[in-house]
Design goal:
Blueprint: H1 16-32, E1 36-37, E2 43-45, H2 46-53, H3 58-63, E3 65-68, E4 74-77, H4 82-91, E5 101-110, E6 122-131, H5 137-152, E7 158-164, H6 171-185, H7 191-199, H8 210-215, H9 228-243, E8 249-250, E9 262-270, E10 278-284, H10 288-291, E11 299-305, H11 306-312, E12 326-330, H12 333-349, E13 353-355, H13 362-372, E14 376-380, H14 382-387, E15 389-394, E16 400-404, H15 408-416
Parallel strand pairs: 1-5, 7-8, 12-13, 12-14
Antiparallel strand pairs: 2-4, 3-4, 5-6, 6-11, 7-9, 9-10, 10-11, 14-15, 15-16
Helix pairs in contact: 1-5, 5-9, 12-15
The structure holds histidyl-adenosine monophosphate.
Length: 421
């Protein structure tokens, strides 16, 4: 038997209702906050991701699903959505009428990471991106949106971690201080961090290996190296979060796995997911639009890990299993044909109707109706068809009434409440 690929998963009926409810809630929150949906391709030119996420990141170095297509062009299954949204914003000149644009997009991403709880090779993200606003209030709005959404989704106990990654003016000073610090602590670092300390030293800060964490406890803080503008913006960020009563933790070791970030960065973390504690992450990426060939416009955004969100949301789904409102138990060839017409018409009217397509006895059809949880059963045989009247049974009260076979749709709709015919 062919099994699915490691790190990939099926979302089955019974679970998928929660996914749908989360997506629906997210869309309604995005509507309230003035975000518009954008849909972008799942495959892009590899260069788009290597240029935006950064050649020295884990994602680009070892996690992307990259293929050459039949013409030999290098293409990649998207590991994230931001690069594509930026490409689209530039390609369609979406900034010409108004540089300020707010987009959201929901869909699958692909990273060939080591699978474990909360970490998959195909996973889903809910993304939000704001273009054209350089005020830190845009970052605050994103964090506020996340907190609002998580509260509507009954997500318990999340922590908002924030940091500033500085800008091209102040970050080099910090990078040098970090390199100096790392050169002294090198012996205590894991082999990945020894490599990272040369290629991408900031990434050492969030290594999860306990010995590295210990070695990095006394690391210099980027916040001590920020330039005047970055300090000012970070202060606006923290003051505004306080005004909105959003509690947060300033986390000097919070860096992100993608290179495009500047200034404000944030993560929403939870204790319920073991090692994969980030349910959402994001921040400002002011240089990316220009770096990808667009105008010099600022941008900020986030992505929620939808798989992780489903694992921690306490949302109660009322109609978890939508049971049929009516099951038509038909006996005989002619009645089956009629029952099928009725099922089609009832479904069209907005009534969940089912039938058995085989040649089963009445007893076994009633058993199936029960198993499906149908609230009513319409029983019709050749005799009922000739006489023009069939039995409608309420499965709860066991009461039965006769309804005319000439007006089944009207009668059933009236009884069960359907869209107007
Ligand atoms: P990211 O931190 O790489 O950021 O991913 C965002 C979220 O996606 C993570 O916090 C996590 O919940 C989820 N996630 C990431 N990898 C996996 C995985 N292998 N399995 C399950 N969930 C995962 C970004 O992707 C940025 N594009 C976010 C962003 C948007 N920044 C600005 N705009």
């Amino acid at each position: 038997m062919i099994q699915l690929i490691r790190g990939f998963k099926d979302v089955l009926p019974g679970e998928v209702e929660l996914w749908q409810a989360i997506e629906k809630t997210a869309i309604s929150v995005f509507d309230d906050f003035g975000f518009k949906e954008i849909r972008i391709p799942i495959i892009e030119k590899t260069e788009l991701f290597s240029r935006s996420i950064g050649d020295n990141t884990d994602i680009v170095e070892k996690e992307m699903y990259t293929f050459s297509d039949r013409k030999g062009d290098l293409i990649t299954l998207r590991p994230e959505a931001t690069a594509s949204v930026v490409r689209s914003y530039i390609q369609h000149k979406l900034y010409t009428s108004d540089p300020v644009q707010k987009f959201y997009t929901i869909g699958p991403m692909f990273r060939r990471e080591r699978p474990q709880q909360g970490r998959y090779r195909q996973f889903y993200q809910i993304n939000a991106e704001i273009f054209g606003i350089d005020s830190p209030l845009a970052d605050v709005q994103l964090i506020f949106l996340l907190v609002t959404l998580f509260s509507r989704l009954a997500v318990p106990d999340v922590e908002t971690h924030i940091n500033s990654l500085g800008c091209p003016i102040c970050r080099p000073g910090f990078k040098q201080a970090l390199i100096d610090f790392l050169s002294k602590t090198k012996v205590k670092l894991c082999s990945d961090c020894i490599r990272r300390s040369k290629q991408n030293p900031l990434r050492v800060l969030d290594c999860k290996v306990p010995s590295c964490r210990e070695a990095m406890a006394q690391t210099p803080s980027l916040l001590d190296f920020l330039c005047y503008e970055c300090v000012r913006d970070f202060k606006i960020l923290t003051d505004s979060l306080e005004h909105l009563n959003i509690s947060f933790i300033i986390d000097k070791r919070l860096v992100r796995g993608l290179d495009y970030y500047t200034r404000a960065t944030f993560e929403i973390q939870t204790g319920f997911l073991g090692a994969q504690s980030a349910v959402a992450g994001g921040g400002r990426y002011d240089g990316l639009v220009e770096a990808l060939g667009g105008p010099d416009l600022p941008a900020t955004g986030f992505a929620i890990g939808l798989d992780r969100l489903t694992e921690i949301s306490d949302l109660q789904i009322d109609d978890y299993h939508k049971t049929p409102q009516i099951f038509i138990a038909a006996l005989g060839q002619k009645s089956k044909g009629k029952a099928f017409e009725w099922v089609c018409s009832l479904n069209k009217t907005g009534i969940r109707a089912e039938m058995d397509f085989g040649e089963k006895s009445l007893k076994s059809q009633m058993k199936r109706a029960n198993k499906l949880g149908a609230s009513h059963v319409l029983i019709v045989g050749e005799k009922e068809l000739t006489e023009g009247s069939a039995v409608l049974r309420d499965m709860m009260t066991k009461k039965q009434v006769f309804i005319s076979t000439d007006a089944v749709i009207e009668n059933v709709s009236r009884k069960l409440g359907a869209l107007p015919l």
